[in-house]
Amino acid sequence: MLSDVVDRLACPHCGSALELEGSELGCERGHGFDVARQGYVSLLPGSGQAASGDSAEMVAARQLFLDAGHYDALVGAVAAEVVRTRERGPVECVLDVGAGTGHYLAAGLDAAPGAVGIAVDASKPAARRAAGAHPRIGSVLADVWQQLPVREGSVDVALTVFAPRGPSELRRVLTPHGALVVLTPTPRHLGELVDTLGLLRVDERKPERLADAMAGTFVRGRHGVVEQTMQLRHADVAALVGMGPSAWHLSTAARADQVAALPEVVAVTISVQVSVYHPAP
Ligand SMILES: C[S@@+](CC[C@H](N)C(=O)[O-])C[C@H]1O[C@@H](n2cnc3c(N)ncnc32)[C@H](O)[C@@H]1O
Ligand SMILES: [Zn+2]
C-alpha cells in the first residue's frame, strides 16, 4: 500500500518529502496528489499519462502470460538476486521501474520478508494492477526518463525487467550497498516467433549498448543468461505477442490469423540476460 512507501517518495515538483493525508499525498510546499480509487498515485509532474506507457490490452495480455507461469525462470532469477543482496546488507525497499503488472516486484518482496516495494510505471492500467499485486507494494505513475519521484538512497534493490531505465536516477535512489538487477532479451529470445510471426528483432548490439549506458555510474557484478524452451499453445502465443512491442505493429485480426496457422503447440526459446550492477564508488 502507498502508506508503506510514502516516506521514500519525493514530490515531483520540488523534491520535498511527501505525506499521506486521507486520500492525498502532499508536500510541505503545498503540492498535492490524489490517490486514485484503485490505490495508485500519479506523481507525473504534468497532467495525464506519459506517452510510452502500455495500453490496457497489453497489460491484460501480460498478466495472462505471467500468471500462466511461462516466465517463472525469470521471476526466480529476480528473487534469487534479492536474496543475494540480503546477504550483503538489509533489504528494506525494492523498486521496480517499468513494473508492468507488478509480478516481478511481488516475487522480490516475497524473497525479502518485511521489505516494501515501489512500482513505477508510465501506464495507468499497469499502475492499477501493480497496486493490487502484493500487500507491500505502493504503486506510482511516473516517467523513468524524468527525475524519479523517489528519495535519494532509499532503495536497496532496483529492478528493471524488459523496461526502459535511466542509470543516473537509479544510482541516486540506491543505497551504497544496493543492487540494480537488469533483465534484457538476447537476440535469441523468442527467436522462433520472430521468424514466423515477424516480431521485432532484438538488436544484436543490445548487450554492448547496456554496458555503455551503465559505464561510470555502475560497475557490473554477477551476470548470466537464463535460457529455456517453453511449450506454448495458441492462446499463450497470442498473449505473448499482445503484451510486447510488436503489438503496436499489426492489427488484432491479422495477428489472430497468423497465430491460428501455427502448430497446436510451439516450442519457443526464452533467452534473457540477467545482470547485476552495483553503484560505482
Ligand atoms: C515490456 S513492459 C515490462 C513490464 C514488466 N517489467 C514485466 O516484465 O512484466 C515495459 C513496461 O515499461 C513501461 N514504460 C514504458 N515507458 C515508460 C516510461 N517512460 N516510464 C515508466 N514506465 C514506462 C510500460 O508501460 C510497460 O509496463
Ligand atoms: Zn512539492
Provide a compact summary of the structure.
With 281 residues, the chain is an alpha/beta fold.
Structural commentary:
By secondary structure, the chain is of the alpha/beta class. About 30% of the residues lie in helices and about 30% in strands. It has a single domain (about 1-280), classed as Vaccinia Virus protein VP39 (Rossmann fold, 3-Layer(aba) Sandwich), CATH 3.40.50. An 8-stranded mixed β-sheet has the order 4-7-6-5-8-9-11-10, sandwiched between helices. A 3-stranded antiparallel β-sheet has the order 1-2-3, with no helix packed on it. The relative contact order is 0.15. The model has no long low-confidence stretch (mean pLDDT about 95). S-adenosylmethionine (SAM) binds near residues 50, 62, 98 and 104.
Termini distance?
A: 33 Å
* Overall 3D form: globular
**Spatial order of the strands forming the largest sheet:** 4-7-6-5-8-9-11-10
Using the coordinates above, name the CATH class: Alpha Beta
The helix content is: 25-40%
CATH superfamily: Vaccinia Virus protein VP39
What is the N-to-C succession of helices and strands? HEEEEHHEHEHEEHEHHEHHE
**Structural class of the helix and strand makeup?**
alpha/beta
Number of helices: 10
Mean pLDDT: 93
What fraction of the residues are assigned to beta strands by DSSP?
A: 25-35%
Low-confidence stretches: none
Largest sheet: 8 strands, mixed
Organism: Rhodococcus antarcticus
Domain 23S rRNA (guanine(745)-N(1))-methyltransferase N-terminal: 10-45
Domain Methyltransferase: 94-178
Protein name: Methyltransferase domain-containing protein
